[in-house]
Each structure stands twice: as C-alpha cells, then as structure tokens.
Amino acid sequence: MKDLPIGLETFSTLIENDYVYIDKTKYIYKMARPGKRIFLSRPRRFGKSLLVSTIEELYRGNKKLFEGLFIYNKWDWNKTHPVIVIDFGDVNVKTKESLTRTLSFKLDKIAKRYDIKLTALI
After folding, report:
1. Cα separation values, 109 from 27, 41, 97, 105, 120, Å
2. Which end of the chain, C or N, has fewer beta carbons within 10 A?
C-alpha cells in the first residue's frame, strides 16, 4: 500500500516518492484556460500549497511528473512559463511597515534567484 502524504506540500516529492495522489489536474486544466479569473479560497491545511506546487510544475513543463494523470496528453509541454511563488505561510506582520519589509525581502530573494534587477521600491 502506498504511503499517505501527510504534511507534504510539494507535488514533485509526492510523485517521485510514489505517495498517494488524488489527480486533480482535470480542474487545473479547466482553470488554466485563457481569459478566466479564478479566486481560490480554502481553509487552513486544505491543500493550497500542494495545488500551487502542482501548477508550478505544470507551467515549468515538468512533463514526466504528470505521467498517467488527466492532463498529461492535453497540456502543451513545448510551452513553458516562468513561475513566481510567494509563500505567506510564514508571515506574521502587524503593521504596514513590517508587511512592506517582508514583501520587499521576499521579492528581493526571488529577483536574485532569477538574476532580475528590481528598479522600484514598494
């Protein structure tokens, strides 16, 4: 029997380590259609990070991870897109200033990773 991925939030880890994964790529495929705006609201510990991780791997074109899933033969794997993920799970701010500092720090970290020069301040 496959292990349950309790507490895991990374799609690639689930797939590469053969954990149980309920295929929700049909819904991601529907959401990814152009011209649609989507608001996702879920309670804590309800899979938001895993969903974001799955979308991230999809847009980066990591086809191998999606073998056997709904989206595998439907997605244009020749097209990849840059993905920027900002995780606010570890953020605990109480003032506008601390939010600005935290957001600036996170954006600066992303900019360095992708060798992007930020020209505007928040």
Report:
1. 31, 27, 18, 6, 15
2. N
